[in-house]
Structure formats: structure tokens, C-alpha cells
Amino acid sequence: MNKNNILNRSNKLLIIIVLGAFSLGPVAAQDSDQPREPYTINPGDLLEISVWKELDLQRQVLVRPDGAFSFPLSGDIVAEGRTVEDVRQELTRRLATYIPDLVVTVTVAEINGNKIYVIGQVKTPGVFVVNPRVDVIQALSIAGGMTPFAQVNNIKILRRRGSQQRILKFRYSDIIKGDNLEQNVLLEVGDVVLVP
Question: Is pLDDT of 27 > 80?
């Protein structure tokens, strides 16, 4: 292969790479334009809490089923439905009485509370810990897809808020045609996807 052929191939490759970079630009910009909601803590999550220079105040705490956890000198702190930053600020406020110039760090060590349930005519029904949040199609995929016996146009999402329960309907055939995409909702903690 002569020098001119190598240069021509190199130039073509460079053009493809440059055009590819330009075609990815708007997509990347769209993703970054949409702010992501911060993660909210759920019962079952494991938090790592550390107070700088205080070895006795560095530990992991489990968020109990009631949505709270206990921490020395702070008592019980409700964490469910709050962001990590909210919890950090409350801990800082409560500990400031005892420790001057404190620095508190709170991180989520394990996300165990962000659970959804997929049951019925799917290949692997069960409880799934999801991170980040997923929509109905993604949940069906996580569960291995539907069996040949599934009633794909009669799928229901059961959503409980307090004592109230709602049923959201989902028609798979609409989604694969590109219709009624609004029914492919983001699932919330505790949602049940029921595939009859």
C-alpha cells in the first residue's frame, strides 16, 4: 500500500470521526439540559455517616421500615423521601450543639429500598432493586420479558400512596407502534407491574 492510499484512508477516517462527534453533540446537549431529580432515601437503604475528626461518629446506619434511623447525639432522624443533602443538613444542625466547626458527610452506601415488583406472565418475576428509576418497558426487560401467554394489552401498574391505591393501564402493542407513549410511566418505589 502506497503513501497516498494511507493518507486517503486516514483522511476518510478523520472525516467520519469528526462527523460522528458533531452528530453526538446535540444528543449530549439534550441529556445535560434536563436536570436529574436527586435520589430520595427509602427504607432499607444503608447510609454512611461520618463526622470529621470524630471517630465515634463514623458509622453505617440502616434506614428502618418506619423511614428513620438513629444516630448518636442526634436521636431519630426521618430520612424517607428526603435527599442525602437534606439529611446531612439536619445532622449538622443537631450535632452543632455538641461539636464546634463540624463537617458532616452523608452518602448512600447501598441502595436497597428502591424496589419494584414485576409479577405474572414474565420470565423471571420478582422483586427488583432499581437504580436509577426505570419505566414500565425497562421493568419488563429486567424481568426477562413476557411469556408467550401474557396478555400484553392488559398490563396494570399498581401504585399505592398511603391507604389509596391506583391502577395505571399499559398496552404493550401501543408502545411498540409508537402510540400512547405517556403510558410508559417512570415507576415509583413499591410499584407492582402485573402482567396477566
Answer: no
